[in-house]
Design a protein that fits this description.
Blueprint lengths: L3 E3 L2 E7 L3 H18 L4 E5 L3 E6 L10 H14 L6
Antiparallel strand pairs: 1-2, 2-4, 3-4
Length: about 80
């Protein structure tokens, strides 16, 4: 797991082939996040880059086990077809 800690939050950027691919993966991620009851903050830049920021809001915006668990799931989903 290769996430950066910035302002007490986990952050990672993924570059994909297209905006459509980002949306498809976000649809899959939404189900995972609902199951974990933990949801990421994210922003899309350009057309093919998504940046995730993770922290636990109900724990004073700190990094918890839930964030690392979600980060692993995001890695599995988004690194498969990352565009370099």
């Amino acid at each position: 797991m290769n996430w950066n800690i910035i302002n007490n939050k986990l952050e990672k950027e993924f570059k994909l082939k297209s905006f459509s691919e980002i949306i498809e993966k976000l649809q899959s991620l939404s189900k995972i996040a609902d199951e974990l009851n933990h949801h990421p903050d994210f922003r899309v830049q350009n057309y093919n880059t998504i940046i995730f920021t993770l922290c636990t809001h109900d724990k004073e915006n700190t990094i918890t086990r839930k964030d690392y668990e979600l980060a692993e799931k995001i890695d599995l989903l988004f690194e498969k077809q990352q565009f370099n």
